[in-house]
Design goal:
The chain has about 425 residues and is α/β, with parallel strands linked by helices. Helix content is about 35%, strand content about 20%. The protein is globular, with a radius of gyration of 22 Å.
């Protein structure tokens, strides 16, 4: 989402005759687009702000702005140099990017600039993002903004506001435009994409299954991915759309967070262990070739050793292909921070997280080993990082595949037979 937002910011700035530079020492304006999901992310931003101050020596008029969720959460405290140890000139929330040109004028006149007002309507639907850091093959399309799930550990509903969905015609126009520009893969983005809902008076409502089917029909050579799904909303209707269209990628990211129903209830995830596993069964039945990835939090408030063991057993039962794994990080202003004690000691969180990581590495390796001998269609993204004689790309299951280059170009589809693997990568030869 932040990457997509940065492309929107780039578009707004280039409309006002600014040019992007990848060299901060040449910049007149530097924006840091931020995340507040974990404390570690915020600490990285504060450290980066301190590093950026060195560029003021060369350019005393340099403007430094903090954008996004951290701007929304910390607001004016970011402008207080004593609190951050750095000078920040602008603080702009995720719904105020259209105001950036005016806010820059405020800074030039000697004022600090702040706009962190959340909107119930803003979707940036009419702005064509500048794909300034793209590989020219894959692109993001933001289809909705905000979240109303209010998981007790999560700050997103407070930093990104209410759910609102983009008009489907604007999404389809963007997908068509990207394909015409040579892009061959798009990812539909939202805090919870499968709660997408757009309705106008007198018209048939659009849900996410209808939108996904429409995007898939833009062109059969355009791959379609989406992120992220909430288990309570991943319907059989959606799974049937994924199964029906060959160009809808057979990769489903379904965050579980915990394998314990007691912990899930405390997290306000709105499903139980049994309900999650029932959704997994539906995926296996309706989209048998799908790879399933997840998010897992270790050491949430009150998590017992038995709760942790339930997470490990669920991981084994599902056999996740990939996972994002974190220690619980208390976020100020969330329900968990206000109502629950962060009572799992740090050393126990670390040990549980390591057990989760070790198990997932094993599961990922086993998943990849099952693919040895199979042939997959791979979309070439570019040269392999380790060898100029090989190229890399992903298959429909979102697994990275490395194979011998025979003059392939980014955007080519290549059939590749898998010959070996690691826990992270499939290795093969073109057929």
């Amino acid at each position: 989402m932040n990457f997509s937002d940065s492309e929107i910011v780039a578009s707004i700035m280039t409309e006002k005759s600014y040019l992007a530079t990848d060299k901060p020492e040449n910049a007149d304006v530097i924006f840091i687009n931020t995340c507040s999901i974990r404390d570690n992310a915020e600490q990285k931003v504060l450290n980066r702000l301190k590093q950026l101050q060195t560029y003021r020596k060369k350019n005393p008029n340099l403007v430094v702005g903090v954008l996004g969720c951290m701007a929304e959460r910390l607001k004016t405290s970011l402008l207080e140099e004593g609190k951050t140890g750095s000078r920040v000139d602008m603080v702009v929330g995720p719904d105020a990017y259209r105001d950036l040109p005016q806010l820059l004028l405020d800074v030039e006149s000697g004022q600090k600039a702040v706009n962190v007002i959340l909107s119930a309507e803003e979707t940036y639907a009419d702005i064509t993002p500048v794909r300034y850091a793209s590989n020219g093959v894959s692109a993001f399309i933001s289809i909705m903004r905000g979240c109303e799930n209010f998981c007790t550990y999560c700050v997103v509903p407070y930093t990104r506001g209410k759910e609102r969905s983009r008009k489907p015609t604007s999404i389809l126009e963007e997908a068509n435009s990207l394909f015409e520009q040579g892009y061959r893969e798009i990812t539909l983005l939202g805090q919870n994409v499968n709660s997408y809902h757009f309705e106008q008076e007198g018209e048939t409502p659009w849900g996410f299954p209808q939108l996904l089917a429409a995007v898939a029909q833009v062109n059969p050579l355009l791959r379609v991915r989406f992120a992220t799904s909430h288990p309570k909303d991943i319907s059989d209707e959606l799974l049937e759309v994924i199964a029906r269209f060959p160009n809808v990628c057979k990769s489903i990211h379904l965050p579980v967070q915990s394998g314990s129903s007691a912990t899930l209830k405390k997290m306000n995830r709105k499903y139980t262990r049994e309900m999650y596993l029932e959704r997994i069964q539906s995926i296996r039945k309706l989209v048998p070739q799908a790879a399933i990835s997840t998010d897992i939090i270790a050491g949430f408030c009150g998590e017992t050793e038995a709760d942790h063991e339930l997470t490990l057993s669920l991981m084994q039962e599902v056999g996740f292909d990939f996972a994002y794994m974190f220690k619980y990080s208390e976020r100020p202003g969330t329900t968990a921070a206000d109502k629950f004690e962060d009572d799992v000691p740090e050393e126990i969180k670390s040990r549980r997280l390591q057990q989760i990581i070790d198990l997932q590495n094993q599961l990922s390796l086993e998943s990849n080993q099952r693919d040895v001998g199979k042939v997959f269609e791979v979309l070439v993204e570019g040269k392999s990082k380790k060898s100029s004689s090989r190229v890399s790309g992903r298959n429909s299951q979102n697994k990275m595949v490395v194979f011998t280059d025979k003059g392939f170009q980014p955007g080519d589809y290549v059939m590749v037979k898998i010959q070996s693997c690691t826990s992270a990568t499939l290795k093969g030869e073109p057929q």
